[in-house]
Amino acid sequence: MKINRTNPIINYKSVEEVKYRELFKVTEKFHSTMDISSVLAEIIQTLQKVFPQYEYCLLMSNDHNNSDDLPIKELEYNSENLTAISSYVNGTVEIENDGDCLHLYAPLKGKQGVYGVLQVQTDAPAPIKNEEIDFIRLLANTAGSALENAKLYQQSRKLIDDLRFINETSYELNATSSLKETIQFLVAKVTSFFSASAIGFIFLEKEEVEVLAESSDFFHEDIAKVFIGYIYEVIQVEKDGIFIGDTQQLKVEMSCPYGTIMAVPMTAGEAMKGIVIAVAAEPYSFTFDMFKLFQSIIHRSTLAIFNSMLREKLEKMVVTDHLTQLFARDYLNDEIELSMQADHEGTFILMDLDDFKHINDTYGHQVGDEVLIQVANLIKDHLRLTDIGARWGGEELAVYLPNVELAIGIQIAQRLREIISKSTKPKVTVTCGISHWVYGYKDEVKYLFKRADTALYEAKRAGKNRIAVKEIQK
């Protein structure tokens, strides 16, 4: 009888063939994907197919989120499993036999580092064959390279997205002129990109804290005052932005219903002019990379914000009287011209402070200026947002009431006259000349002014602290 001694070898070769065919297939799949979860899934599926008798687990660093129900655990660096840590740190295959079962640890190693450890567990303490170890090592190395490529690809995509975000934000900021629009744009952009729960823009002026109106509601609540104060103190000490991944770990009493905080100072030279704070509901909702990007955006935005503030201050200086903070006469003139084109009617009040020279001579010009400021503040406090108070010149002030009929305008002038007489110190009275225009009659701004001036002159001649009206000749 002839014995066939080649069958076992043929079987052995066929088994090896199957294993390395699977390795070839999985390698092809690794090269065709840049998705980390897909790479990890292929590792487990291939091993379960080739060595179904073993149990597998992937020990990954904490930068991987398992959303595919794969046997993945976080690699804990303070773990008692020193063999797994040794495999990760040294990049070598390690075997541990505790008497009941055997564990093999193979590092998922790329050219730039180790990205995790593959754990293989047997039910019995019997050793794993050398050829099986070689296969597992080869698969782990191949997977490590694939993971590295996928991570580098994702990092490059993230960098591209970040740069696009920075460029788009910078472009929009350069195209935005007003402070309100600038802050509204940044709040919307940061909220969307970082999935922030709330954004606060806080300005610091002579140690006074001002929360801009465009900030999220939380920053306008009373509980936010302590929170903002704490952030301000920390930044003052650190001289840099702060990132708090989990507010529950703070050893201070601070009313903050949010889990994660990013805060970046807005500086001009060496001086801190404000703070931008972003918060999210859950701990570690923001990553440190997100914090660095947030810093970059705020640093780039600070110049645009300060430019908007400076532009608005300059615009206000042009249209505002420096002493009284009422509008300038040219601005009043332009606004009445626009009103005559758009509105149905309007009332103009020209008022003169009675015996103002006597106040200057008696109390001095500084007190005279203070009286002017008092009268201007009373006017501002008793006008609508649509009304205009202006410095006409010297001790003369003016009020324009768009879409206000003459009878109502007279009542408003009378009320202002009485309030000024009662509220100023030293006491001063005013005499008013009133004119009015209405749609349908040919009229101009200069004629409106002339009628009010004539009425004021007539009121002065008749006695002080009174009102006179000069209507349009129909």
TrEMBL record:
Main enzyme class: transferase
Keyword Chloroplast tagged: no
Keywords attached to this entry: Nucleotidyltransferase, Transferase
Domain GGDEF: 344-472
Gene Ontology cellular component terms for the protein in this record: plasma membrane
Gene3D superfamilies: 3.30.450.40, 3.30.70.270
InterPro entries noted in UniProt: Diguanylate_Cyclase, GAF-like_dom_sf, GGDEF_dom, Nucleotide_cyclase, Rev_trsase/Diguanyl_cyclase
EC numbers, comma separated: 2.7.7.65
GO molecular function: diguanylate cyclase activity
PANTHER family: DIGUANYLATE CYCLASE DGCM-RELATED, REGULATORY COMPONENTS OF SENSORY TRANSDUCTION SYSTEM
Name of this protein: Diguanylate cyclase
Species of the source: Lederbergia lenta (Bacillus lentus)
The organism's taxonomic lineage, starting at the top: Bacteria, Bacillati, Bacillota, Bacilli, Bacillales
